[in-house]
Amino acid sequence: MTAISTQATAGPPAAATSTLDLAGVSRWYGNVVAVNDVTMRLGPGVTGLLGPNGAGKTTLLHMMAGFLSPSRGTVALDGEPTWRNPAVYRRLGLVSEREAVHTFLSAYEFVLASAKLHRLPDPEAATRRAIELVEMEDAQTRRIGTYSKGMRQRTRVAAALVHDPQVLLLDEPFNGMDPRQRLHMMALLHRLGDAGRTILFSSHILEEVEQVSGTVQVMVAGRLAASGDYRTIRRLMTNRPHVFGVRSTDDRALAVALMAEASVSGVELDRTGLTVKAGDYGAFTRALPRIALRHGIRVRQLLPEDESLESVFSYLVEA
Amino acid sequence: MSTVTWITARGLFGRSRFLMLLPLPLVLIGLAVLCRSLGVDPGQWGPPVLVGLGLAVVLPVVALIVGTGVLGAEIDDGTVVHILTKPLPRWQIVLPKLAVAAGVTAVTVGVPIYVAGVLADSVRLGLALVAASAAGALAYSALFLALSLVTRRPVLLGLVYVLIWEGLLGRFVSGTRVLSIQQWVIALADRMAPTPLLGTTVSVPVAAVLTALVAVGFTVLAIDRLRSFSVAGETS
């Protein structure tokens, strides 16, 4: 086992939190490399696994969930390998992307079957709790075959949560959900993350990831392109000028003054205000108030315009 | 009843595929009743109906439909993931599924073959056919259950075994009969109720040992393959 795994077992007790460690994980199919040398550690909180279609997100998730063996490297939950080790499912829940449910069962029967398969001491109570968590009480006795896609998804989430796992992996969990269900699911993931659960969800929709999680793992062409808080990732991209939207009492005068500032590489003036490109995030944000004060200009608005996950992501994909 | 058994049985009887099981047993009973009511000599209709239809077609085809259905259908539609994401040793998944497959096959085949055996000869032959079919159901089910874990086309491969190996080669190349579940079932039934209606060149000890070996061997193979079950790794 790797040093990383040893650290994980030496950390907080498994009953409280769990850590999923990937060390040098690769997976290839013939000549095609789907996942290439990925090392990451997932701890408590919500993490978004982001990447364009075909980036290797699902392959990575399947390896984490023990449904695929890594061609190289190790995947371990609290130091135990996930591959060929069903015992890890006591602490791990999976909601796969493929919409697969036993349509001949009701949501209650489906979740109860999961609870019984987990050998929970009180499966009925666990089932009621999981169904409440996803707000499926009203339809719980109807056959799953009659459900909408979003309801099926929530039923699957309830089944994955019935044993209150420390780690929950979700592959594109918001697919097919309406905006209200989406918000509800986002709130649920937040709550679970805040309660110390390790939550990883994959998505290729930036808005979803941005709303649910500040921490991202960005996959591009099978590689882990970036990891951490996306705002921090953006600030570390020093070769990309930061773009700010600035509105003030005298935009033209401020534009002239800013051009003399070393950290500013370009200023654009239009009817709505200024668009400033700055090479150094910290230097510019410190210089602006000083410059404005010196010229008697009042800054009304300062907005970082490319600090969204979308711009971070597009920079990473372009790189 | 274990939860895996319950889900498997609900899944099996809940699919329209299950309706495919009904016509063959009905044809078997219908032919036996017809021959008997028309007063045809059992020596004439017994071998083609009992062996040619009952043991060579109804038993393996029913076993194929059920055996590939108990796990293969769940693999096809992805629902197997729900059972696999539980902390269960994989034998606790395979054995209940095998029990459901073998049990359903044994009952579906046992009833018509018993009726046909009684009409052709005696209650003893009927019971012998039921017991031998049950042993055959177990061996076939283990084989087809394992096939659904080693290939993506278990039905096709199962049909090749039943039609080509047992049906065609078994008829013309006598050596292949030693490795034919159908011939083992005939040998076992003939041992329990000796009758000229059943005939095989395979000895009873060989049949008994090979039936047990196939049942155990393919079950062990299925358990091992389920431990290493991989979900297709296509990326989204």
Automatic annotation (TrEMBL), chain A:
Keywords: ATP-binding, Nucleotide-binding, Transport. InterPro entries: AAA+_ATPase, ABC_transporter-like_ATP-bd, P-loop_NTPase. It comes from the Bacteria. The keyword Nucleotide-binding applies. The keyword Nucleotide-binding applies. Residues 20-246 form the ABC transporter domain. GO terms for molecular function: ATP binding; ATP hydrolysis activity. PANTHER family: ABC TRANSPORTER RELATED (PTHR43335:SF11), ABC TRANSPORTER, ATP-BINDING PROTEIN (PTHR43335). Belongs to the ABC transporter superfamily. This is ABC-2 type transport system ATP-binding protein. It comes from Micromonospora marina.
Automatic annotation (TrEMBL), chain B:
This is ABC-2 type transport system permease protein. The keyword Membrane applies. It comes from Micromonospora marina. GO terms for molecular function: ABC-type transporter activity. The lineage of its organism: Bacteria, Bacillati, Actinomycetota, Actinomycetes, Micromonosporales. GO terms for cellular component: plasma membrane. The chain crosses the membrane at residues 49-73, 94-119, 125-147, 154-173, 202-223. The keyword Transmembrane applies. It comes from the Bacteria. Keywords: Membrane, Transmembrane, Transmembrane helix.
